[in-house]
Amino acid sequence: MNFKKDVCVIGGGVMGLAAAYYLLKAGKTVVVLEKAEVGSGASSSCDDMILLQSKKPGIALTLAMESLEMYKELPDELGADIGFLSLGGMVIIEDEKQLKIMEDFVKQQVSYGLDVEIVGRDTLYKKQPHVARYMIASTYSATDSQVNPLLLMRAFLRNGINMGMDVLRYTPVQEINQTGDHWMVKGENGVNVECDSIVIAAGAWSAHIGELMGIDIPIRPIKGQVAVTEQIAPIGETNCWTAAYIASKHDPSIMPDRSEYDKEIGLGFAFSRTSEGNYLIGSTRENAGFDKTTNFKAIARMLEQTRQYFPIMNKVNIIRTMAGFRPGTKDGSPIIGEVDGFPGLFIAAGHEGDGVALSPITGKSVAEMVCGAGEHKRFDQLNLRRFSNN
Questions:
Q1: Which residues does residue 279 pair with via DSSP β-bridges, in sequence order?
Q2: DSSP 291-338
Q3: From CA 285, how far away is CA 294, in angstroms rounded?
Q4: Number of independent structural domains in the chain
Q5: Among the three residues 309, 328, 347, which one is the final residue of a domain in this structure?
Q6: 171 and 309 co-located in one domain
Q7: Is 57 contained in some domain?
Q8: Over the stretch 329-387, which tens digit does the pLDDT of each residue have?
């Protein structure tokens, strides 16, 4: 099968489908190559959060806020229910050390325009009546939202196909060559794609794509295990995290004393209610390569922690567990932009746990870069070249 397209998107997860959608809107012809089933990577084994409170003040937070504004319009734009909800979020605080650091963190976020505040025990227990009584405070933001990744991908996929997008499932990329100002992408099953531009959006597998061209894309899989509860009535007004969850991403100094095993699995706490009434409980941050199996000991520790924070969860059943691979970089920020020395080659990957949250703004921005539209100087700090400068 031979294809001649403007753009070949490598990766059929939420990031690849978002990029393809916005490229199609801009008038480009697009083919998506996916090594397995659409959305079979991190996009189908993650939580559902558009979480702003976890973002560092700076471009990460700014992009997340812009993405949230896009999400508000996407259900109408895509003509589909994508499970978008704004339940708000709270980061619960266990001790004075955490409180001081979170106060500074919140002050910085407010300076960037995020609607977030520190609230005391009265407000915490009003919004979270079942949280453990030793908590001393919490952050609160009404802006934290969520979306169903499966519904979102289905909507991007359906709209893309209606606009002429070709999607080739179970087509791993075998070879990529540059021929003049064109690219030739060879996939399994005799697939050949001639295109002007390539977007690498292969998540945790993006490094493998780079290797085909001798390019070092420093993205590694960070395994995250998640437990899913039975459907229950809401046990609080908002979704919840702990300051230790924020610390696991940005400031390990405020982590509480932990066992060696907790450190080994990178134990954090995230607690969100889906639109269907299940709770998603996470998570771990493990350097386990591409081992996608769930581990009873890790899941048991996650649930023990959940019952410590929310004792009522002793009465709730777990119906399944899952694991996925966050595509992580060593500085925790995504890689977005054109690759120096390879005209027409773009990367949109490495978002770690923020892929769902940032997919609309990343997809739209990368589409504009491919089209040579707009001004994207702010993305220079997220370009691949930052790693060669270290």
A1: 273
A2: -----HHHHHHHHHHHHHH-GGGGG--EEEEEEEEEEE-TTS--EEEE
A3: 12
A4: 2
A5: 328
A6: no
A7: no
A8: 999 999 999 999 999 999 999 999 899 999 999 999 999 999 999 999 999 999 999 99
Same domain, 226 and 200: no
Q: Look at strands 191-200 and 2-10 and give their pairing.
A: parallel
Q: Quote the domain boundaries for residue 127.
A: 89-142+220-328
CB within 8 Å of 365: residues ≥ 6 apart: 336, 374, 376, 379
Strand partners, 197: 7
11 Rama class: left (phi>0) / alpha (psi -120 to 50) / beta: left
Distance CA 192, CA 324 (A): 30
Task: List Cβ neighbours of 305 (8 Å cut-off, separation of 6 or more).
Answer: 267, 269
324 strand-pairing partners: 224
Query: Are residues 132 and 309 in contact, defined by beta-carbon separation less than 8 angstroms?
Result: yes
Q: Report H helices in the chain.
A: 14-25, 59-78, 96-111, 121-127, 149-162, 206-211, 243-249, 260-265, 296-309, 355-371, 385-388
Q: Are residue 193 and residue 125 in the same domain, yes or no?
A: no
Query: What's the confidence (pLDDT) of residue 97?
Result: 87
Phi, psi (degrees; rounded to nearest 5) at 206: -65, -35
306 shares its domain with 170: no
Say what the pTM is.
0.95
Local structure of residue 85 (DSSP, 8 states): B
User: Is residue 271, in this structure, part of any structural domain at all?
Assistant: yes
Residue 250 CB neighbours (<10 A): 16
Residue type, 198: I
Residue 227 lies in a domain: yes
Q: Domain check: are 192 and 234 in the same one? A: no
